[in-house]
Amino acid sequence: MTRYIMLLWPHANARYQSETVHLAEAELSLMLDRLAPGTAISRETGLSMPSLVVEFVGTPEPPVIEALRAHSLLYGLFEQRGGLLAPVTGRMGARVGEDLPAILKYKGKTNEMFLQLLINAALYAGDFWPRAGERLAFLDPMCGRATSLFVAANYGWDATGADVDRNDLKEAEKFFKRYLEYHRFKHAVSRESRTLKKGQAQVTRFDYAPDAQAFKAGASALSLVNLDAAQAETALGKNGYHVIACDLPYGVRHDAQLARGADRRGNWLETLLARALPGWKAMLKAGGTVAVSFNAQNMSLEKVRGLMEAAGLEVLRGGAYDGFAHWVEQAITRDIAIAKKPQ
């Protein structure tokens, strides 16, 4: 038995800090169920700082430790040797820039560490987690100003984001272009239109790499698409994505214009999700997953799971999958639903 202590990233809000411990535990449980089954996880209470105890059967292989570096709330991992803590590793290195998801500030922005947790939860629920270090294809069909795409880019993945708000996408485009220029990345920007059933979807694509040699060898891609979430399949095609993750609007300040075609008399977000999920399922590769976070004060976990099942997805329940509900603020209790496209 080898005992490790995982120190968790501190949060300025004391109440939210207490929520992050059980979030970190749920995320870690999902990861270790795949990476090292049988590993015991518990909470460390003697350090006066947020932390988890991880007890491996035997000594973990280097790939397990390397994968844990991508845990969204990892501050540092230590091996406990008697009364001493020996440093093992810190957070995963960023492929583009550690500050990339954090710089752009705006009202209503979802914390980039939570989005990393959401992406990790989707990844380790599906069949493609052994390929996490490769160029997987990621989609956020309601991406706002693209924070989730920047998280995925730091994984080395190709990232696509769609949103109905053209202004948000323009802000994301402007910011990412400046970021690449400032950090002297070799990059190219292209634009095109995709035909929808009604109208056109405007696509902006960045191909980028740290230098010209890497660009020729194979540039990464980040694309921004202006369309309604329920039209994503029409513009982007079927069977193309390994992971879909989306932080849904919380229904506190968002306007119902986001749900084109929704019944304004009911829960417009529920109506939009019912319209969109069949297309999201079609866009996933077999064995891929979709994870959505949402305000459980407006829409229950079982309601979201029911919509996923109605779209033909295999909902994942029990254990860590039931452990993601957490307080955000008075009007928001956030939860996560995860489902897989069957083989």
Task: Just name the CATH architecture of the largest domain.
Answer: 3-Layer(aba) Sandwich
Helix content: 25-40%
- Low-pLDDT residue intervals, each spanning 5 or more residues: 252-264
Quick one: CATH superfamily of the largest domain?
Vaccinia Virus protein VP39
Report on the biggest sheet: 10 strands, mixed
Spell the H/E element sequence.
EHEEHEEHHEHEHEEHEHEHEHEEE
The total of helices stands at 10
What is the level 1 CATH name of the largest domain? Alpha Beta
Shape: globular
> Beta-strand percentage?
25-35%
Which fold name fills CATH's third level, the topology of the largest domain? Rossmann fold
Distance between the termini: 36 Å
The number of domains: 2
Structural class: alpha+beta
Strands, total number: 15
